[in-house]
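Quick start: read one record
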Amino acid sequence: MFKKTTWHQPTWLAQSWPGFAWLSIIIVIAAILPQQIQQALVYQHSAIIDAEYWRLVTGHLLHSNTWHLVMNLAGLSLVMLLHGRYYSSSTIILYVGCTALGISYLLLWLAPDIQVYVGLSGVLHALLCIGAIKDMQQHEPTGKILFLGLMAKVGYEQWQGPDADLAQLINANVAIDAHLFGIVIGLLLALLLSLVAYFHRAYGRKFKRPPGR
């Protein structure tokens, strides 16, 4: 007789997958919104200058076509599988919001020629960068490979320019600067998190009250 085996869901997956699922649902809903509403949500340089600041975040949730949507949902799933253990449902949503905001500000001031932008690819680059650094801090060998791969990819894009075939597939220009800015924001956020963790370890105990007698 064969012994019945039971698959147990990893604890980290149980903690993080609802957040990833909600993000995916929001992105799919954004994709089926009426065109008029989508136009009010895309990252648009001139509109943001005119104080429509919500576009700094909402533009990253929209996509140019179905292929673009599917590719980025696959990328989000990859982030969950590789680094979901580093997040809870609330923190992944917070990270997405913070990285989207940071990327948009860099696009706004350092790439003003990009008038319209949609897509999650910049945020995905940031999340993969953060995850790779966390892997390296945990002495995971794949962290260094992923980090170097991201650096090579973004460097190649800046040298060679956007991929014409990919642009045709997603029916939009590939915003390689968003990928670069995603890496920059990912590095800055990872540095900030490392500093917070360091100061917590170094000085946190000094502020703890001694146990009562």
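The chain has one domain: 11-199.
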